[in-house]
Amino acid sequence: MIPAVVYILCTLTSLVAMTLLWRAYAARKVRLLLWSGLCFAGLALNNVLLFVDLIMIPEHDLSTVRQIPALMGVSFLLYGLVYDLRE
After folding, report:
1. pTM of the complete model
2. pLDDT, tens digit, 9 for 90 and up, residues 47-70
3. How many beta carbons lie within 10 A of that of residue 86, not counting itself?
4. Is residue 14 a contact partner of residue 44, using CB atoms and an 8 Å limit?
5. Cβ contact 32:81 at 8 Å
6. 87 — pLDDT class (breaks 50, 70, 90)
7. Coil, strand or helix: which one is 75?
8. What is the mean pLDDT of the chain?
9. Is 48 helix (H, G, I), strand (E, B) or coil?
10. Calpha distance 11→51 (Å, rounded)
């Protein structure tokens, strides 16, 4: 019960951070906010897949599949930090 609550709270936290970053990007057009929002979108999807993997269908191992959105999200943030800050 407790792990499920923690996974849900982590997902909600990532979604709130993503929403706030995208709203700030829409208002200010600072591209690092966009890349950070995309990173948190990937982390939120990772948390959803973690919940599905460990709570809903524990008999299947989705560990490889659930790491893909996190990798993509962190890659977006790394791209934004390296290439957008050069300009």
Report:
1. 0.91
2. 999 999 999 999 999 999 999 999
3. 6
4. yes
5. yes
6. low
7. helix
8. 94
9. helix
10. 9
Q: So what's the pLDDT on residue 86?
A: 73
Q: Is 9 exposed, middle or buried (0-12, 13-18, 19+ CB in 10 A)?
A: exposed
Q: Which has the closest alpha carbon to 36: 49, 87, 44?
A: 44
Structure tokens at 16: 């709130």
Tokens of 61: 């191992």
Residue among 47, 9, 40 nearest 23 (CA): 40
DSSP H helices in the chain: 2-28, 31-51, 63-79
Show Cβ contacts of residue 84 under 8 Å, excluding neighbours closer than 6 positions: 31, 32, 35
